[in-house]
Amino acid sequence: MRLYILFSLLLLAVLCSSRVDARKVKFGNLCSGNPSNSKRKCDKHGCGHYGASRGGRKHQGLDIVCADGATVYAPFDVKLIRRSVPYTNNNAINDGIMLTGEGLCFKLFYVKPDRYYGTLRKGQRIGTMLPMQRVYPHITSHVHVQMLEVLPQKLET
C-alpha cells in the first residue's frame, strides 16, 4: 500500500512539476455565460484576484465568474487527474477536480465534474457549477482556478 501511495505521489509530481508561465497560456471559455472569462471583482465576501486577503491568509487562486448551474468547459485540452475538494467540511459546493494541460497542473473548485478521470478536448464539458449562493448568499458565483506546483522535496515531508 505504501508503495502505491509513493508511486501516486511521484506520478503527480511529474505531471505537475513543469515550469510553464501560466500567463502565456491562452485559456478558452471556462464557463457558459462568461465567454471572456471575466474575473470576480470584490463583493461582501472578498475579492477574487490572486493574493487577495482571506483574513490571516492569502487567496491562492483566481476566481472566474460563473453562474450557479452553468456549464463548465475545458479551457484547453486537459487530462482529468482526480477529485479535489476545497473544504474539510461537507457543504453544497465542496467538490472540484485536478487537471493537467498545456504544461500546467491546476484545480477547479465549486464544480461538479461529470467524471474525475480521462481526457477532454478544449471546449468539451467538464461539469456543472455548484450552487454557491446556497453557501455564500450574495457572493459573485465563480469557479476558483488554482495553479499547482509540486516539487520533489515536498514529497519527502
TrEMBL record:
Record protein name field: Leukocyte cell-derived chemotaxin-2
Keyword set, alphabetical order: Disulfide bond, Metal-binding, Signal, Zinc
Species classification: Eukaryota, Metazoa, Chordata, Craniata, Vertebrata
Native source species: Cirrhinus molitorella (mud carp)
Keyword Metal-binding: yes
GO molecular function, one term: metal ion binding
Family affiliation: Belongs to the LECT2/MIM-1 family.
Signal peptide feature range: 1-22
